[in-house]
Design goal:
alpha+beta; 5-stranded antiparallel β-sheet; globular; Nitroreductase; Nitroreductase-like
């Protein structure tokens, strides 16, 4: 079967390129939003796209908090400001390697604009996930240890917390990417952040999220003030290691 035959079922744009590629290549983080509301039916479509994402073991333990109430957003705005200020004073103080200062200055300006206008954000989506308690019995642990070997089993014991966090994240972030793609496809601006984790306890309290529920992002959504354009990323030849590192 030829590549052309395999691609016959793809949804293509006017040039014949699969339209999803055009969506991904112009999916900038859009932080300047109009205050106009986003209809609930469009927000529901974003969540539907997220739900279509893969979930480990098909457990589908995700939940999504969708904030549109202006009073609630105003309550969250000071928390957002504190988180952004903490980020810009530490990790975000310097431009990433390979990004020139002018471009980084424009990005910081957009972050500051979003911080200063957060109360006007039309919608905010908080993806949550929580694994159920593990069901492990002695025979299963024995086979687990034999399959991995003593050294690897001991190593897994040391990194179990990291493994659990990555496992939950792997069930959440594919859905988040679907949500971002859907937003771009509908002409909506969105960007993913995890800055809320600086003050996760306070965010949970403000939104009534159970203490034992894990949150994975805070995604502002709205109609863009700017225009979508090509993303700037490293080339494939810079990042690919074929067969071995």
């Amino acid at each position: 079967m030829t590549t052309e035959t395999r691609l016959a079922g793809a949804v293509a744009d006017a040039t014949g390129e699969p339209s999803l590629f055009a969506t991904m290549s112009t999916m900038r983080a859009m932080r300047r939003l109009r205050p106009d509301p986003v209809p609930d039916e469009l927000l529901d479509r974003l969540i539907q796209a997220a739900v279509w994402g893969p979930s480990g073991g098909n457990m589908q333990r995700y939940e999504y908090v969708v904030v549109t109430d202006r009073a609630v957003m105003a309550e969250l705005a000071p928390l957002w400001k504190r988180c952004v200020d903490a980020y810009l004073a530490t990790t975000g103080k310097y431009a990433p390697e390979g990004m020139d200062e002018a471009a980084y200055g424009r990005m910081v300006a957009a972050i500051e604009y979003q911080r200063d206008h957060f109360a006007d954000t039309p919608a905010l989506i908080i993806p949550c996930y929580q694994f159920p308690p593990p069901r492990i019995e002695e025979e299963g642990l024995r086979i687990y240890a034999e399959a991995l070997g003593a050294e690897a089993a001991e190593r897994m014991g040391r990194i179990q917390e990291r493994f659990s966090a990555l496992a939950e994240g792997s069930c959440v972030y594919p859905g988040v990417q679907n949500l971002l793609l859907a937003a771009r496809g509908l002409g909506l601006a969105a960007n993913i952040t995890i800055w809320h984790l600086f003050l996760e306890t306070e965010w949970k309290a403000a939104l009534g999220i159970p203490e034992d529920m894990n949150t994975f992002a805070a995604i502002p959504v709205g109609w863009p003030l700017g225009t979508f354009g090509p993303v700037r990323r490293r080339s494939v030849t810079e990042v690919v290691h074929r067969d071995r590192w």
